[in-house]
Amino acid sequence: MRVNDKWGSRAEIAIIALMLITIPAFAQEINQKLLNNVSMDIVNNNPKVESPLLAKDQEVIKSAFPAIKTNFGKKGFSESDINSAIATSWLNLRSPSSPLASFDESAFLNYITKLGKLKIESKPVGANIDIDKNLVGITNTIKWLAPRRYRFLISKAGFISEEEERDVVEGDNPPLIKILKPIGP
């Protein structure tokens, strides 16, 4: 039975109402698979980190997620950007050079919301990225970095390396794009 042609049946209205109520609830939860993968990466990179600390970290991140999502949403970042920033932040906070102390929601929010997003590209793709003389990956990728001045070196076998110093600021940054020239005549 149709209520009217404009709104559809009562069942259709009920389904739409249920979707409107539940979709925001799903969007406020972080991807558990992402947290599990990052947790494994942390243990592989820093065996000193123990499971109870990682479990506490996950609870803090889950608790902070709605505020992170709101903050990043206001800056125009996508869900994928948010997940990438969370993964990067947690990996950084649990790197072998970082202390093993626990962090609270406020500390995590303060850290993650200050990061700058930098897309690093090259032609040809697959060049090494060194940031401050540390190999951090290959192009084409996105890096989340604390705001400050960095030295970038983009290199690939058979090509002339390109170097640049630049400031990374909080939020979105202009992409770093390097066109590498072949070595030789």
What does this structure look like?
The protein has 185 residues and is of the alpha+beta class. The chain has two domains: 31-112; 116-179, Carboxypeptidase-like, regulatory domain (Immunoglobulin-like, Sandwich), CATH 2.60.40. 43% of the residues lie in helices and 26% in strands. It has helices at residues 10-27, 32-45, 51-74, 79-93, 105-112; strands spanning 2-4, 8-9, 116-123, 128-131, 134-138, 141-145, 148-155, 162-168, 171-172, 176-179. The strands form three sheets. Strands 3, 6, 9 and 10 form a four-stranded mixed beta sheet that branches. Strand 4 and strand 5 (134-138) form a beta hairpin. Helix 2 (32-45) runs parallel beside helix 4 (79-93) and helix 3 (51-74) runs antiparallel to helix 4. The chain starts with a strand and ends in a 6-residue tail after the last strand. Mean pLDDT is 84; it is low at 1-27.
Task: Explain the layout of strands and helices.
Blueprint: E1 2-4, E2 8-9, H1 10-27, H2 32-45, H3 51-74, H4 79-93, H5 105-112, E3 116-123, E4 128-131, E5 134-138, E6 141-145, E7 148-155, E8 162-168, E9 171-172, E10 176-179
Parallel strand pairs: 3-9, 3-10
Antiparallel strand pairs: 1-2, 3-6, 4-5, 4-7, 7-8
Helix pairs in contact: 2-4, 3-4, 3-5
Keywords:
185 residues; alpha+beta; Immunoglobulin-like; 10 strands; globular
Quick gist of this model?
This protein is an alpha+beta fold and 185 residues long. The chain is built from five helices and ten strands; from the N terminus they run E-E-H-H-H-H-H-E-E-E-E-E-E-E-E.
